[in-house]
Structure formats: structure tokens, C-alpha cells
Design brief:
The chain is mainly β and 298 residues long. It has two domains: 74 residues, Arc Repressor Mutant, subunit A (Orthogonal Bundle), CATH 1.10.10.10; 212 residues, Sandwich (Jelly Rolls), CATH 2.60.120. The protein has four helices and 18 strands. Strand 11 and strand 12 form a beta hairpin. The chain is elongated, with a radius of gyration of 22 Å. Keywords: DNA-binding, Transcription, Transcription regulation. GO terms for molecular function: DNA binding; DNA-binding transcription factor activity. InterPro entries: ArsR-like_HTH, HTH_ArsR_DNA-bd_dom, Metal_resp_trans_reg, WH-like_DNA-bd_sf, WH_DNA-bd_sf. This is HTH-type transcriptional regulator, ArsR family protein.
Amino acid sequence: MDLDISNKSLPIFAALDSQVRIKIIRLLSEKKMNVSQISKAIRLSSPITIMHLNKLEEAHIIKTQKKGNQRICSLQIDTINISFPQQLYIPYENWNIELPIGQFTNFDVQPSCGLACQKGFIGKVDNPSYFMDPKRYEAGMLWFAKGYVEYQVPNYLKPDQELEMIELSMELSSEFPFSNNRWPSDITISLDGKEIGTWTSPGDFSDIRGRYTPDWVYNDMNQYGMLKSLRVSKHGSFIDGQHFADTTINELDTSKNSWTLRIGVKDDAKHAGGCTIFGNQFGNHDQGIKGRFYFSEN
């Protein structure tokens, strides 16, 4: 489950604000249990236990199923990620871009792979040829088990301007046929042929539906990713504020009209678990690949 600091996340925070409910979560992490078993384990009456279970189910932390006269409870998630707002004062001018995830200019992918838009799949799934389908620009989600996709990031610098820092953000996860919440993948991101860093995605998530994922997407398919923030400055390259590489902004060729942004999984990656990229009207963040470019006047 992917959370941010907003009112939408309050029900989950409220559900976790209880020693009793934390104990229930620990019990269900070991095995499925019915209401009577949980009530006995936490030493509370069935009505009080049901009240706590309802709170956890409303927050999509657990799920319940009817089996005869019994209510069987199980955990619905195994990870909660919280994204805090990042604020950084930069005394420079800047320009912003947002690339649709289907606007890649080069690719080399292997199945399982595919593209999806608001209406359904684009072309045939697991056929890399359809990554060149003209409708790829409509894609709100793309995925591949091996390989990479590349985008051209425009350079709007004028001759008398100096690039100071670049910030990028994108929603990513691993790729497993349908989904697997525990499926690590080392996703490497590079700019202008220079590695920014490698982030290990913990899985390909379908524990709950993505906030923006269209209704036609099956519940056991990729639902959402994690929003990753990348920064390239004169001090190195960072992912979510942590230093990942020594690549600096000075290594970019600012005479080019554009820079190549590559997102992929290396052949020799320790965790070669594929990559899913979420875009507009998919996943938990209604955005494509966002970029902010800071510059100073000479």
C-alpha cells in the first residue's frame, strides 16, 4: 500500500492508531483466523473484536470472507509505504515538463510486456512489436520483464544560462505476470548515458486497487507503483534524497537539444524483476514522467 500525507490517508493512519488492532495485524501475519479465534487471542468480546476488524477492513488492511457461519480474516497487504512531501528552496529559475509514459523514442523489451490505456490493452500483450503501435502515446501503463525504454527530455537552455539541477519523478514498480507483492527488481535510471542510480522495487503491487487505475484492469494485475524522486545536482545524483551515484549536473552535455532518459533493468541485475511505469490516470499518482530543470543566468 502506497500512502502520502493527505486526508485520503487518514483512515489508514486511524486504523493503525490502536494497540489492539496492531495485535490483530500481528496475529493475521501468521495465519488466517476467524472472529472467535481472534477474540480469544486478544481477550476481548466478539462485538468489540468485530468493531476493530471492521476498522481494519474499511482501511483495506485486512479482508474477510464468509465460510459457512464463520468470518475468516486475513491480511490484505504486507507493506505500507509513506511518501512525505519534499520541500527544497532553490534560488533559481526553472522550467517544467511532463512526458507521457507512452512517448518513449527507443526500447528493447522482453515478455512479459505490454501497454495499456484507459480503454484496454494497446495491441497484443507479450508482443514487443506493439511497443511501436501509434496508439502507444495513449498509454497510462507499460511493463516489461527485461530490457529498457528511453525518452527524449528536451533541453530549453539558452546560451547565457547554466544548468544547476534536475529533478525527476515517476511512479514505478516491478513486473511479474499478473502481480506479486514480493518480487524485488533493480530498476536503473540513467540520463544522457550517465547512471543516476538504481532503486530496488519491493514488488509488483495488487494488494489494493490503484487510486486512478481504470475499472477494466483486473484486481490481480499491476495496480500501482511507488513515486520515486530523482535529483541530479553539482553534488551527485540522489533518489528520494539519498545519494546513489557520483554523476553530477556538470557531466551533461548542455549543447544538445535533448537528453536521453533510460529506465530499465540490466541483464546482470541482482534482482531482475522487470519494470512497470505508471502514467496519467493509472496507479496512485495521476502523472507522467515529470521533470523540473533549474538554471542560473550568466
